[in-house]
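for the writeup, i need someone to sanity check this before i put it in the appendix. the sequnce is what the collaborator sent (i think, or maybe the updated version? ugh). structure was predicted straight from it, no edits. if anything looks off just tell me and ill rerun, i have time this weekend
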Amino acid sequence: MTRVIAGAVAAALVTLAVFAVPSHADERVQITATDGVQLVGHLAGLEGPGIVFGHMYPADQRSWTAFAEEMANAGFRTLTFDFRGYGESGGEKDIAAIDRDMEGAYRFLIGRKIRPVYLVGASMGGTAALIVASRVPVAGVATLSAPVAFRGLDAAPALAKLTTRKLFLAAAADQPAAAAAKQFAAQAADPKTIQLVPGGEHGTALFDGAQAAAVKTALRGFLTAPASP
């Protein structure tokens, strides 16, 4: 009888421990773009700096889910969201306006008193991230395979205004993306880092290829580096 009671108590304690310390929260949230379009995102993490993830074309926020979960478990508040007209979000698809969505997601985190905030974007999401980082204070901006311009969205005028830390990442054999990363690195002011990895994958597809470990290491290192004095 004593052994049975002891075993029951031990099992109860394990159960309480599991439910008392969740690895991260996950909340479906409503985001308002700066021009009023209603967007849907998912906020994860319990505490720490914020990261806004912008997805590539023609994907949606799910392309960032796995990496965002990793960073939430590493001590960040992570926000994935669908650009207008994609996935769960409202509005019509308008790539030339997605910087308004990215800024709306940034302001959502600030409104939740989550700061500092990093912007991370894949392909068109990276272009939007650079534009937004040129006009609001962020802790850093990282791009995966971002083009300089895409369907009316143009980061070129923003480059001279970027004063925050920057990471430009692309696959070497993805020639347009690699050329854009080199242009970003040549025209943007310090601090900046460019990293070209082997292969030809584009955007968040970089997480699926042989270079996935190098890409994740580069992003994690950028996001967890000590803030500049």
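Confidence is low (pLDDT under 50) at residues 1-23. The chain has one domain: 24-224.
thx in advance!!
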